[in-house]
Amino acid sequence: MAKAGFIGLGVMGFPMAGHLQAKGHAVTVYNRTAAKASQWAARFGGASAPTPRQAAAGAEIVVACVGNDEDLRSIAYGPDGILAGLGAQAVFVDHTTASADVARELFRACGQQAAHFIDAPVSGGQAGAENGALTIMCGGEPDGFARAEPVLRAYGRAVTLMGSAGAGQLTKMVNQICIAGMLQALAEGLNFAQRAGLDPELVLATISKGAAQSWQMDHRWPTMAAGRFDFGFAVDWMRKDLSIALDEGRRNGAGLPVTALVDQFYRAVQQRGGGRLDTSSLITNLREP
Fold first, then answer.
1. Where are the domains of the chain?
2. From the centroid of its chain, how far is CA 30?
3. Among 3, 36, 172, 209, which one carries the catalytic annotation?
4. What's the pLDDT band for 289 if we cut at 50, 70, 90?
5. How many whole angstroms separate alpha carbon 180 and alpha carbon 190?
């Protein structure tokens, strides 16, 4: 069992840190809103700290799950940051969906103080975090990964080293590219079925047995048909993730024409006030003028 620090108790981090504590790790949490950290400690029995540095002090593994590159830098650097409290041979694991550049930057910074860094974005959403069934895509060196993997198994059903620093973030970009295209295709298929006078449930029951089957079809087509979008991974978050992928695509020369188009479809959802709706709300573009 490890002594762990956990930084960032949002909809993902709160249950993830809870799984660590429940599996016997000694967890100290930090959250920008201190009341949330106190709430977590009261629920799970761990400890809370007033700064990231104090949450990291003496920890064998420090985990972060925040919003974006700048949020990550704000908790990593400075006199009260994670790096100021991170000991030699400790592992800093970042679950934020961020750029590959910031992952490489933090990998170098940790190396300068003989610590390890693993970029480890996740897939599975809030339900995966709550159920301890996330897919975790990791980038870094094998030694650091070997230290982190047993701890990450507390909430990861699949924990895989994808390559060197930044490879986890690049893999998450592939994940989001695929999901965005699939959801737009589902939206168009469902809208077509309804306008053609077909029974959506019968269509779903039939084509989900064939080559069109996917997780998104199984879990999102029924709620899309019902017009329910008040759950799941928000449009605002998806646009943030797609902007990272599009920036990387421009840098490495990968053409992403469908991804760029779907990003603009999500922009249209945002403009109608749907930024906090689930990503499957793409279908509203086809139903509303």
1. 3-164, 170-287
2. 18
3. 172
4. low
5. 16
Q: 265 with 285: CB under 8 angstroms?
A: yes
- Among candidate residues 84, 20, 21, 19, the one with its CA nearest the CA of residue 51: 84
131 pLDDT band, cuts 50/70/90, is very high
Instruction: Measure the CA–CA gap between 22 and 46, rounded to whole angstroms.
Output: 9
Q: Output the six-digit token pair for 123.
A: 């897939």
> To which CATH superfamily is domain 3-164 assigned?
NAD(P)-binding Rossmann-like Domain (3.40.50.720)
Query: Is it the case that residue 288 has pLDDT exceeding 80?
Result: no
Quick one: average pLDDT of 79-89?
Answer: 98
Query: How is residue 224 written in tokens?
Result: 């899309």
Mean pLDDT of 181-209: 97
Q: What percent of the chain has pLDDT over 90?
A: 99
The question of whether 172 is a catalytic residue gets the answer yes
Judge whether residue 239 has pLDDT over 80: yes
Q: Which has the closest alpha carbon to 92: 122, 61, 123?
A: 61
Closest by Cα among 154, 148, 102, 161 to 128: 154
Tokens for 102? 């910031």
CATH superfamily of the 170-287 domain: N-(1-d-carboxylethyl)-l-norvaline Dehydrogenase; domain 2 (1.10.1040.10)
Burial of 43 (C-beta count, 10 Å sphere; 0-12/13-18/19+): exposed
Look at residues 46, 121, 107, 97 and name the one whose alpha carbon lies nearest to residue 76: 107
Tell me which residue of 116, 64, 121 sits closest to 91, measured CA to CA: 116
Model pTM? 0.96
pLDDT digits (tens, 9 = 90+) for 248-261: 999 999 999 999 99
